[in-house]
Design a protein that fits this description.
Blueprint lengths: L4 E10 L8 E11 L4 E5 L6 H8 L7 E6 L2 E2 L5 H11 E5 L10 H6 L11 H14 L15 H13 L5 E5 L7 H18 L2 E5 L3 H5 L3 E6 L2 E4 L1
Parallel strand pairs: 3-8, 3-9, 6-7, 7-8
Antiparallel strand pairs: 1-2, 1-4, 4-5, 9-10
Helix pairs in contact: 5-6
Length: 229
Amino acid sequence: MEPLLQLQDVSKTYLTTSDAAPVHVLNAVSFSLAQAETAAIVGPSGSGKSTLLNIIGTLDKPTTGIVRLDGRDMAKLNDQEVAVVRNHQIGFIFQAHHLLPHCSVLENVLIPTLAKCSVLKPSTALERARRLIDRVGLTSRLNHRPSQLSGGERQRVAVVRALINRPKLLLADEPTGALDRASAQTLAQVLVDLNREEKTTLIVVTHSLELSKLMARQFDVCDGAVREK
């Protein structure tokens, strides 16, 4: 089977102002992941982990190399086509939950389905949102706003929001970084369980050894190189 995600000799260089030398963040990164596979990306701060995740998620472009998602070369798509891919096939979870403070849990979860290119009909989206919210144990918080939730509860809402459009790829950047130990463990288990149930390929950037060990594969980023442990 063709991999869901394939990176081939991906490099990223940032040009600087004045006479300063270019900053080489990633150098000839190559790996692939299958549908429903899980992976952790670890490494020291500033090593390029988040840059790599942004390139995979089409939020940034590589300087050289190829990123294929579901067999499609992302560099060959125009901006509108990339936006559709991002909405249909990729879900994002960040350390900061980025929930809208004036919206309820249910409303926050449904936001990605409001895009014109959303794959879900309103009735289907509502049914799926309620089911996923119940799955992560937040049915009683359905109409609460983010300020009325704990940090762990807000991150669980962010996970559901990322999954609402049935993405094939779920990207999480330090999802447990701002949580206490108990909340982090709960969220980690939610991610693992939903990966199994939804068959979504999961990539987690993390400093947490406990979270990384829950992933089937681990990649270490150091000096621009990515090596599988």
